[in-house]
Design brief:
With 339 residues, the chain is mainly α. Helices cover 71% and strands 2% of the residues. A two-stranded parallel sheet has the order 1-2.
Length: 339
């Protein structure tokens, strides 16, 4: 036997050891097998359970979506065992795509479809044949339709669920997965399992769509936030530039007011008037005296100092210049620092 295996490139490996991390519920699996298959030899059940358990242990938590990525699979001629293993993986484990057990017929079909041996059949005919093989037989499909119609009439299935069971492509695929095209394998429980799969797939689709919308909205918000930050930075720069310009204006005004007040005070004295021989100088002196007089009155009434006047002028220049620049740059002046 060893020579036979070696001749055909088959290696013999010991069964993987038991590990808590990748251990399946063998009691549940045994119950599912006993419900489906009547074994004459009790040891055969233990052998099948250990074989399926070994596949899960070898996969080490892998949930493959393609047969070539499955890492390990049990090939059998027992279609019922393959069906039980598929249901078990679907309901109790993560093996929802590639079952832990497949039939030799299924393996041969997959191998041929992935690497056909130079068939002369037209491509469209091959595709049509493959598609037909994947569809439920007419009798099985009619049996399925009758059952879901009964469930709808009795109120056990809602109209929306009935529509999904009747029109969903996933329902057809799951019907074939659960029954392998055999009418005897179909039951009311099959419909319940198909409905669960359809709802799960719908939930996944909706969840994926919502996640895509959330990411798109987040990207839009981030982009808008970036533009808003740029706008805010620009507004701040203009605000502080106008503030500096206002302070410079206030300093210049103070530099002009102080000499004017001093000149008015000096011109008001009698001795200074004797030096004014020119009419223009006389007019300037009179203006300085008038300015000094008005300023003195304001200082007495409201206590207006030169510094306070310069600060007021600085603020006024700042506000006016900032509004003007914002109008020119088409920027909303509201929300600037200091508002």
């Amino acid at each position: 036997m060893e020579a036979f295996y070696g001749l055909h490139g088959i290696s013999k490996w010991p069964a993987p050891s038991y590990g808590r991390e990748f251990q399946i519920d063998e009691a549940v699996l045994q119950e599912a097998i006993n419900d489906e298959i009547a074994y004459f030899n009790p040891r055969a059940v233990d052998h099948d359970i250990n074989s399926i358990r070994s596949i899960y242990a070898l996969r080490k938590g892998l949930a493959p979506t393609r047969l070539e990525n499955a890492k390990a699979v049990l090939v059998t001629t027992n279609t019922r065992l393959a069906r039980v293993a598929y249901r078990f993986g679907r309901e109790h484990e993560s093996m929802r795509e590639v079952s832990s057990v497949i039939t030799d017929f299924s393996l041969g079909n997959v191998a041929w479809l992935k690497a056909p041996l130079g068939s002369d059949l037209p491509r469209r005919e091959i595709l049509a044949t493959c598609y037909a093989a994947m569809q439920p037989p007419p009798k099985l499909w009619n049996q399925y339709l009758d059952e879901i119609t009964k469930l709808r009439s009795s109120g056990e299935v809602s109209p929306a669920d009935h529509e999904a069971l009747r029109l969903s492509l996933i329902a057809r695929e799951e019907l074939m997965n659960l029954t392998l095209g055999e009418e005897k394998a179909f039951s009311r429980r099959t419909v319940e399992q198909i409905l669960e799969t359809v709802k799960l797939e719908y939930t996944r689709t909706v969840t994926a769509q919502l996640e895509d919308e959330r990411k798109a909205r987040l990207a839009t918000e981030q982009k808008a936030g970036g533009l808003e930050r740029q706008h805010e930075e620009r507004r701040k720069r203009l605000f502080w530039w106008c503030a500096r310009a206002g302070r410079v204006g206030g300093i210049v005004a103070m530099a002009l007011v102080i000499p004017a007040v001093f000149a008015g005070a000096l011109a008001a004295t009698y001795s200074f008037g004797a030096y004014l021989q020119n009419s223009w100088l006389t007019s300037l002196a009179n203006a300085a005296i008038g300015f000094f007089t008005v300023w003195s009155i304001l200082d007495l009434v409201v206590g207006l100092s030169v510094k306070e006047a310069a600060d007021w002028l600085s603020r006024s220049l700042h506000a006016g210049l900032y509004r003007l620049v914002c109008r020119i740059e088409d920027i909303d002046p509201a929300g600037a620092p200091g508002d």
